[in-house]
Structure to design on (283 residues):
């Protein structure tokens, strides 16, 4: 069971996976979740698995359409490596079937591109269980 | 051949991209059928190949100035050639991917291919009339070209 409450001062380790460099930089720059620390990034699914093994993240943002290995296949492999990893799909693919397939493979949330900074942070907060009722 | 409802999907996707990613709406001209071969491209073009339920290409083509400002609006300070290529591909990918909301997951899209430079061109598949959607954003003009059968 995760404890990502603000009182848990341990950094939350984030891996960003996207074939677009500007999207990776944007996610890193725009996220403002307390204690969420970017520990690595990868530009395709194969590289993501290598970086995942090296950095042991708690949370992953995952694009779907990428070369070499797509995000859906990568989610399945990451969940095998660490069943309690939290994965937020960040993708332009806007159909329900893709979202359902990603969830079935083990993803925990879905954020459509394009997104605003607020939408990104809300999606991460919800993923981490930090969202507060308004 | 793409129909009016499908064109509206791409018009909506393009509008949505600028409103959300650039935080500033673009105005779109009336879509039209290209009558003489491949529509001309600007300095940077992101091309998505489409397969599955439909076949063809979708491309977003824009001048350097527009992409530079777009990057800056996204708080990206690195406006290198590599990042401009990255952005034009990402725009094409996002608009094409969003089209699956209406087209479904049998509308399969590739990772983007980017072409750049004054002599660049994009060749639509034969037997396919491209539909051009003009895009005006700030003082810049770009276009989305949808060529599907």
């Amino acid at each position: 069971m995760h404890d990502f409450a603000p009182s848990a001062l341990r950094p939350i380790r984030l891996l960003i996976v996207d074939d677009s460099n500007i999207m990776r930089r944007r996610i890193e720059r725009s996220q403002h979740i307390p204690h969420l620390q970017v520990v690595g990034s990868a530009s395709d699914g194969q590289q993501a698995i290598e970086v995942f093994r090296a950095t042991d993240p708690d949370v992953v943002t995952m694009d779907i359409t990428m070369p070499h290995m797509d995000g859906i296949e990568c989610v399945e492999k990451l969940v095998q490596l660490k069943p309690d990893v939290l994965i937020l799909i960040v993708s332009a693919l806007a159909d329900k079937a893709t979202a359902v397939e990603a969830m079935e493979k083990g993803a925990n949330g879905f954020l459509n591109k394009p997104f605003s900074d607020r939408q990104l942070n809300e999606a991460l907060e919800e993923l981490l269980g930090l969202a507060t009722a308004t | 051949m793409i129909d009016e409802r499908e064109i509206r999907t791409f018009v909506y996707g393009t509008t949505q991209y600028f409103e959300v990613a650039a935080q500033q709406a673009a105005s779109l001209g009336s879509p039209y059928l290209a009558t003489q071969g491949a529509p001309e491209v600007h300095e940077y073009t992101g091309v998505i190949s489409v397969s599955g339920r439909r076949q063809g290409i979708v491309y977003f083509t824009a001048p350097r100035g527009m992409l530079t400002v777009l990057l800056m609006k996204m708080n990206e300070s690195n406006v290198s050639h590599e990042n401009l290529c990255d952005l034009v591909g990402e725009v094409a990918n996002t608009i094409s991917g969003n089209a699956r909301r209406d087209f479904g997951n049998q509308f399969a899209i590739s990772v983007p291919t980017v072409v750049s430079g004054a002599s660049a061109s994009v060749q639509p598949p034969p037997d396919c009339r491209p539909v051009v959607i003009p895009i005006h954003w700030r003082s810049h003009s770009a276009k989305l070209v949808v060529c599907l059968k």
Remarks:
- The radius of gyration of chain B is 14 Å.
- DSSP finds four helices and eight strands in chain B.
- The mean pLDDT of chain B is 92.
